[in-house]
Amino acid sequence: MTIFYEERFEFDISEVVEYISEDSRAKGKKFAREIRQAILKIPAFPYKHRQSIYFKDDTIRDLIYKGYVIAYMIDEESESITILGMIKYKEKW
């Protein structure tokens, strides 16, 4: 499966990394690297993560990582996964 990233996700992760980097640039880079590594594992078991609590669609799932929710959509027809965005857990979408 191919992974695509929405602009929203790129904006969201850059905001979080920038915030973390205010304390430690190394921690910000490490956080971004770890999230991207977790995302790269999705294609092996795309339905492993819970159905999104923000969308009523079984093909939209929530990967939870260190208090953040990364929403992604599975498109079996095109064999792709689209990373939609990232928010702090419990925030509204």
UniProtKB/TrEMBL annotation:
InterPro entries (UniProt xref): RelE/ParE_toxin, RelE/ParE_toxin_dom_sf
Listed Pfam families: ParE_toxin (PF05016)
Protein name, per record: Plasmid stabilization protein
Keywords, alphabetical: Toxin-antitoxin system
